[in-house]
Amino acid sequence: MLAFHEGLVLYHGSYADVREIDLERCAPGKDFGRGFYLTTDYDQAKSFVALLPNRLSDQYCFRTEKAIGHLVFEGSDVCEG
User: Fold this and answer.
1) Closest by alpha carbon to 6, among 40, 30, 31?
2) What whole-number distance in Å separates Cα of residue 27 and Cα of residue 78?
3) C-alpha separations of 7 from 3, 63, 74 in Å
4) In the beta sheet, which residues pair with residue 57?
5) Mapping DSSP to helix (H, G, I), strand (E, B) and coil, where does residue 61 land?
6) Residue 70 DSSP one-character state
7) Which of 40, 60, 47 is nearest to 13 (CA)?
8) Would you write out the chain's pLDDT as a tens digit for each of its 81 residues?
9) Fewer Cβ neighbours under 10 Å: the N or C end of the chain?
10) Measured on CA atoms in the order 8, 9, 14, 16, is the torsion positive or negative?
């Protein structure tokens, strides 16, 4: 996988056509708070909206020269409890 600073292809599963990222439209109370969630895994993006009738999976290419807030997870864990 490319390092974040090298550029990434990221995917977002949505029920709406996203023309721009607007955090005010993002629902609060998600796992890591309000935010625009992206993944490097196309199938994971599709699974986020698998049960919605008007689902979309979009590809986003980001290039930025400034630092942006982000979290990178090397893997995923399932918490059982």
Assistant:
1) 40
2) 22
3) 7, 6, 17
4) 13
5) strand
6) -
7) 47
8) 555 556 667 787 777 777 778 888 887 877 778 888 888 788 888 887 776 666 555 555 555 555 566 677 776 665 555
9) C
10) positive
Q: What is the pLDDT of residue 21?
A: 80
What length is written for the chain? 81
Please say whether the beta carbons of 30 and 37 come within 8 A: yes
- DSSP per position, 19-53: SS--GGGSPSSSTTSS----BS-HHHHHHHTTT-T
Q: Which residue has the tokens 């292809």?
A: 9
**CB contact at 8 A, 43 and 3:** no
